[in-house]
Amino acid sequence: MDNFYKELGISADSKLHVDSPRSFLVAEAIRKGYGRLTADGALTVLTGKHTGRSAKDRYIVKTENTAGPVWWENNLLPMTTENFNALKTKVINYLNQTGCLYITERSVGAHQTHNIGARLITSHPQHALFSKHLFREKTREFNDTDYTILHAPELKLDPSEFNTKTETAVVTCLDTNTTIICGTLYAGEIKKSMFAAMNYRLPEAKILPMHSGASRLENEDVSVFFGLSGTGKTTLSTDEGTYLIGDDEHGLSDEGIFNFEGGCYAKTYELSKETEPEIWDASNRFGAMLENVVLDEETGKVDYFDKSIAENGRSSYPLSFIQELETSSKGKIPKDIFFLCADAFGVLPPVSKLTKEQAMFYFVLGYTAKLAGTEIGVKEPQATFSPLFGAPFMLRHPSVYAELLGHYLDKYDINVWLINTGWTGGAYGEGKRFPLKVTRKIIRSIQANKLNDVALENDPIFNLAIPCEVPEVPRELLNPQQTWQDSAAYTEKAQSLASSFHKQMENFGDFYKENIAGAPTYK
After folding, report:
1. 11 in catalytic set
2. Which of 20, 365, 366, 437 could serve as 24's disulfide partner, Cβ 3.0–4.6 Å?
3. Which one of 17, 22, 36, 53 is the catalytic residue?
4. For 44-70, what is each residue's pLDDT tens digit?
5. d(C-alpha 178, C-alpha 346), whole Å
């Protein structure tokens, strides 16, 4: 046994499977009853009651070093060093009792200098498989700056023992580079814990961490796609004719962009070969892992249109499963940055060009909308905001990241576009969603520089510059007011949404006051 594991407290009696082949981990998951194969060879697993992240169970160990830099208002719960150490001891003892551990030694970040080693120690083989997918090959020997993830997904905590809210906890100690995950089988917690670690560390090196997808064209031009769940980030960054750099997590430095990950974690609800052929092919083969999808008992085929287990079904697979791939996981400084939102109120234009001030404003705003029926009690569309299009994983104040964005926009004259992938002609339930083919035509026109010299008109409510024409896109779709039958109803709904933008940004005090030039005109 490696000295690191001995010093950590892993029992010499434990059987350790370190960096096992993918096929072995799949076989172990099936042998232990955690999963089964589809007719196409993918491994399917269920994650129990946790079919998404446990957003209210996230803890950071609060010390002299972290008390100031951490953005505690971001639903981050403090944990004392004493409780963390006690929890760590409990988890290691629990893992030792399982008798069989699955370990991966990987890295996060396709950058020679700015990467973090990531050791995962877990009782479950499918989570080791997930780590092999989402993290990258180890490129150097680990040191004390690298991370250890102690993963006990079926260990349920007594809240009174460690002063936790529930039996579930995702806890990171930034001083010791350790994350503990208990009480949840949802694999996404593993990758997001390391994303948060990168988001905390990189700004010190003047690198902007981004919750975004990225791809490059044949001519090497790079596009970056920011967006919350359901806005099209993964779909648009995995578009045909482009080379995928990554679908979710990147860093931007003076050298260009680099992917943090070694794989993809795509939503599967309504996945089809016709609309998303690359993701479909990657998900329906041996080696891929599917979470919370419905399997036909007779055919062994997955019904991606059945969300009876969870709407947040997921597919994880390595980047090598993508045909059109930028194998270096790097790209030059992006030419275009796209902010994606699914506006369920139907009042934002499908495309608008942002100034630097607007880009910083909408970056911190992080707007999209919840749909009726997606959560208990949600009976009509609701505005939702996630600063930086990924607030749960950003451990520093949004102004830190926004100022880095502004720096790169100024220095490299990057274009920023606001793209509405949501509704037009009325709110959800009355209007219709922009077809994916329309959004793709808009994106492709921008990437081909076809909107560089197009006339722009100003939206009087949101203060947005809207292109007057886009090739192959009906002109009436570009101005949302023209798609509504009741113009007065549009104005009322648009003003209400614009007002909510201001109300949200007031939470950011001085940053909001300094960047009011980027705000909607209606307040």
Report:
1. no
2. 20
3. 53
4. 999 999 999 998 999 999 999 999 999
5. 44
